[in-house]
């Protein structure tokens, strides 16, 4: 890493980052006693996790809600002001409510708080003030360390919002792991963009059926060349008794140019080639292609029967890289 000159801006950045990093480490040492209970509550609810906050706490709340939703916990954010004008009807007695307020005295949250008390809806409070109205009213208290903000005047929400976000992430991941939420589940909620491409399977991107170039082990090389040319992958699989025993690539052809046309496919093929299964992540297939410095992989089933072929260009077009 390049050493940066200690300009005022660099010194300021280092001070802020150190302050916030130390605050998170402090929270690691003093996690709220009710943290595990909150995880169990979320796991057992039949409704959704409703999150609300005002100002910067609201922005952080939206992110926490989005993280929960993307990792298997139905959740959405309710704007506190809109809640007071009809959106309280979005919160049912099957739900859980998380209210976020650094001071614990945010007036805009009052109506949601009273709504949870009136209808016996579990309330989780997240605040740095243990004696605040919010935490005194909450069924579950996620108390954050009460530490100085990182800004020079000690007032702009910096350390407090970082702690809130980190607590939300810790909660979401703990629930996710307790659910056994895995990469397949994650893909269902992230089908688009680069992440969706990286989590896709080889089976989704491979060519199959008549597009898969294969020849029998005893096939004469003139016919092998026709197969390779017609399929357009620069490679063909060599099959014996239904199973893939080798592949013939352009490199194999060059190595046997002397008497190529007198040979059979089995005599020219590279035996026991690198293959992949259809359930392999596309990103892993790309890593194999790069590591082996090849451009094509044959896809086989459990019996080593060729069922597909995947080219590096297919992966790149899909956005796997």
C-alpha termini separation? 25 Å
Structural class: alpha/beta
Largest sheet: 5 strands, parallel
Strand content: 15-25%
Order the strands across the largest sheet as they lie in space. 2-1-3-4-5
The helix content is: 40-55%
Instruction: Give the full name of the CATH homologous superfamily of the largest domain.
Output: Glucose-6-phosphate isomerase like protein, domain 1
CATH architecture of the largest domain: 3-Layer(aba) Sandwich
Low-confidence stretches: none
Return the average pLDDT rounded to an integer. Answer: 89
Question: What is the highest CATH level, the class of the largest domain?
Answer: Alpha Beta
Helices, by number, come to: 15
Order of helices and strands: HHEHEHEHEHEHHHHEHEEHHEEHEEH
Number of individual domains: 2
CATH fold description of the largest domain? Rossmann fold
Calculate Rg over CA atoms.
29 Å
- The number of strands is 12
Task: Give a quick set of tags describing it.
four-stranded mixed β-sheet, alpha/beta, 15 helices, Rossmann fold, 321 residues, 12 strands, CBS-domain, five-stranded parallel β-sheet
Task: Explain what you see.
The protein is of the alpha/beta class and 321 residues long. The strands form three sheets. Strands 2-1-3-4-5 form a five-stranded parallel sheet, sandwiched between helices. Strands 6-7-8-9 form a four-stranded mixed sheet. The protein has a three-stranded mixed sheet with strand order 10-11-12. It is built from 15 helices and twelve strands.
